[in-house]
Structures are given as C-alpha cells and as structure tokens.
Amino acid sequence: MAALAFLVPEAQAGGFIIRSQSAPGFGMSLAGVAAGDELSYSFWNPAVLSQVDGFQVEAGAAAVLPSIDIFSDATGSEIDIGENALVPSSFVAAPLTDQLTVGLAVTSPFGLSTDAPHDWDGQFYSRKSEIFSINASPMISWRVNDKLSIGAGLQFEYFKADLTSAAVLNGPSAELKADDFGVGFNLGMQFRPWDGTTIGLGYRSSIAHDLEGHLTVPGDRSSANATLDTPDVVSLGIVQKVTDRLRLAGTVEWNNWSRLGDVKVEGTDQTLYLEYRDGWLFSVGAEYDVNDKLTLRAGAGYEIVPLTTDNRDTRLPEMDQVMFSVGASYACNDRVTLAVSYLHSMGVGDAKIDIQSDNKRWLGIDYTGTSNLDVNIVSVGVNVKFGG
C-alpha cells in the first residue's frame, strides 16, 4: 500500500506555504512587506499596525492558476497535476491610543491541492491531495517613539488534510483524512533609523498540529494520527524613500522547513520521510506614486525551495522559482482604495523525481521523471478607512 504524504505544492511558495495574502505586496513580489505600511502586511509583521491611520478594514482574494507538469521516464507520458484555487484574506485594525493599535488577520497560510489521473504511472505515490487551513491572528502594536514600533500576536489555526493514492493498480484508493486545531504566535518590529528608511523584522512561529483522523483502504478503516510542525517564518524587509514619489524595497525571508524531519503516522505502518532543507525567498521591488490617487508597483524575486532530488516526490514536485510582478493601487476617494496585482512564477529548469530502491519513499515500484511549473496569480484587494 502506498504511503500517504500530506504535503501539497502551493504555487509561488516553497513547500506548502501560501503567501497570497496581499494584493499590494504581490505587486512588488513581496519586497519590503515587513517594513511597509499596508494593513495586509501585518501578516508578516504585526508592528506594521503602528503605521495604520485610523480604523481600517482590508479584504482581498488571489486567484492561483498553476500548471504543474510531471513527465514520466518510463512511458513518456505527461500530466498536469495543478488545480486552480481562490485564496481569500481579511484584516482589521483599530487604534486604541496614539501609540497602541489592535488588529485581526484571518488568512489561509498553508494549502492548495494537486490532482492526478486515477490510472497514471505514479498512482501508488499519489492521486488527489488537498490541504486546507484557516488562521485567525489577533495582534497589538506599540509605537514606542518616532523611530521604533513593536508588535505581537497569537495564531489560532485549523489544519485539514485529505489525501489519496492507489491501494491496488488502477483500483480503489487508500485515503487519509486528518485535522487539528493548533496555537502559535507572531512577533515583529519596525525601525526608522532616519527619515525615509524603514527596516522591518517579522516572525511567525511554528504551530504543532496533532493531526487525528482515519486511514481508509478497501475493506478496512483504522485510526491514524501524526504530529506535523509547520515551519517558522522570519521576514526581513527594508523600504527606502528615494523621492517624494518613488520608494524602493527588498525582502529576505527564511522558512524553517528543516524542523519537519520524518513524520510517523501512528496507528499505521507508515512514515512520511520529509527531510526538507530550509527555504529562502529574496525579492526586490519599487512603487511610484503617479499622483495622489494612483500608485504603480513592480518587483522580482527568487525562491530556494526546501526540495531536492533526494526528497522530491509526485505530491510535491517543486523546484526553485523566479518570479516577476506588477501592480497598482487606486484611491477612489478619501476612504476607499482598490489594489490589483499580477505575479508570474516559473520553475528554474526541470526538477528530477527519482523514487527507486535507494530512496526511503520507495514502495517497491520505481518512479522516475521530471517536473516543471508555471504559475499565474491575480490578486485584488480593497481597503476601507472609517474615520481618522
């Protein structure tokens, strides 16, 4: 019986992290988000709330349109396992005093899905994979003085996995369903050493999910439990004002994927051999105020994903990626601002999938091939201000 890995590739993110929380941020390939002043940037750094002017609500959605192709060495066949997805997000901020601001973010930090044909070459390693998460994060920030702001928050997260692979050739599937509710935290600071420069540092903690559910195979259903620790995320950003209209930005983000290791599925004879390396994102961008109403953005980035030939499989056939983006914001009036962005991410070359007898993931059937990905993401958002 095939081992069931509950990790699903999210386009434009190493591993199964989702970064589609901000239309303004995606317009610059996430450059400078930890140091910026958009409400949705508080996902990466709760200290951002200190720059929010008045009571604000921001809501957005990202349409993720991936093509994740796998080419089989044995048969020469090619399939696309990518599935389109819509990722919503929402944020609220309310100043309590001139120095204290509270906020709430509701996002989906992990997930998306893949779907392979029922009778494809790698069916014993994967068929359909679905991950769903929802995270509610209450936050507070304190503007210590004109140079320093700090912030903190809690994370309350629901995580669910539903995965299938072939139990018998071209026959019924083995299915794992499991879910859990976990708690974590986030911290951040922004430092303005001199006029026109902001440096931001944000931290999202790992959340330990004690997943509980069932493994179903033809004629049998048994309990299945596993502990999965999501990666810590550290975001370092800088925003530099060049002129009254032009700002440059940059981001370095670290994802602590190496903490996952191997995951034992209790109640079964299966182990998920993850053994990821840490992931990194590097991006640069710029935004330009055409006038008081219109702001244009552009950015580029490079991501080092946690996967190599040693740990890449048919559920997560990801490779390093480059990305390019453009975006714009338009202030309809003093209270309502609309934002839109387009990001294109592509794999760097073809990634090797090599599951043979010397690979821990091997189930007695070889699977070798290559994969590549190409992703388009369109994000929209609206920010509404209520009072000063």
Shape type: globular
Radius of gyration: 22 Å
Number of helices: 1
CATH third-tier fold name: Porin
Structural class by secondary-structure content? mainly beta
CATH architecture, by name, is Beta Barrel
The CATH homologous superfamily: Outer membrane protein transport protein (OMPP1/FadL/TodX)
- Mean of all residue-level pLDDT scores: 91
The helicity comes to under 10%
Instruction: Please list the strands of the largest sheet in the order they lie side by side.
Output: 1-3-4-6-7-8-9-12-13-16-17-18-19-21
Strand content: over 45%
CATH class: Mainly Beta
Which blocks of ≥5 consecutive residues have pLDDT under 50? 1-12
Q: Tell me how many strands there are.
A: 21
